[in-house]
Structure formats: structure tokens, C-alpha cells
Amino acid sequence: MTSRKFFSLFLLCALVPLAAAKLSLAMGWFSHHAVNKGYWLEHEIELLPNAEANAAAWRLVYVAPETCAQACQQALYSLQQLYTGLGRKQLQIQPLVMAPQTPQGLHEFSALHWLEKNILAQQLQNQIVIVNRDGLALLRYPVSEDAQQMQHIAKDIRTDLLRLMNYDRSGT
Predict the structure, then answer these.
(1) pLDDT value for 50
(2) CATH code of domain 39-167
(3) Residue 103 above 90 pLDDT?
(4) Which pLDDT score is estimated for 129?
């Protein structure tokens, strides 16, 4: 086999998969939620710009509304349960509630800590957000009033969070 023929075959083997990937993205054949259960943020939001508190920890942030109604209470309960269910991975997680003032009933959830809401959090109102070690919001999950629905959402958050933590190399 000549070097020209080998080089041509090599280019063909490299370009065909790239062209197929480009075509599948252009035609919309790729499912964006095939791996992740949450919604990736379309633009970068540095939710915790000062990397508040423990910089070695990932954060689960619930951006609470002005008044804590049924959906808010359900989110607080789910966040507490999710944190408790992480077991030894709790050391790498910090659950936060971002609100203008301490939500009513927050004292019932020992793992959750209050953080004053900043301007950037307004667009993530009433959602649970996974925030990486650098304070950058990655995935968001809408909150539901239905307890059964919130169980599914918490399960999705857990799946995505553990996957992100396993692939994270910034802490090692």
C-alpha cells in the first residue's frame, strides 16, 4: 500500500464520523436529554461569584421565591432528603437556599443553609440548581408542588450530580 493510499484511507476514516456527527446535530437527530435529566443553562451564570463558604464542595442551590408556599416547602423537604441520601458523598456537597430572607420553616431542615439572593439568581427563580466548585451554575430543575413529582426530580438531580462529581477532576 502506498503512502498516498494510506493517507487517503486515514482521512476518510477521520472525516466520515465527523461529518455524521455534524449532520446529526444539524438535522436535530441528537437528543439533548439522553444523558442528563436536568436542563443545561444556555448561558453562563456565576451564581456564587465569591465561591462562598466551602470552595471544595459542589452546591445544590434552591432559588426560593419571595414567599415560601407549598412548592417551596416541597423543594426544601426534597433537598434535605436528597442530601441525606447521598451518604458519604455529603462531604462534597453543600445544600443552600437562596432567598431574599430566611424562608419560613427553614429551621426544620438541618442540612440547608440560607444565602441572600443575588441579582443573577432572579432568572432561576423557583428552581434547584447544581453549582460547581467555582460557583458556576450548570444544571437546573423546575420545582413542583406534587410530592410524587418532586421525588422524581430529586432522583434526577442525584443521578446528574453523582455523574458530574465522578467526572470532576478539579478537586484531585
Answers:
(1) 66
(2) 3.40.30.10
(3) no
(4) 93
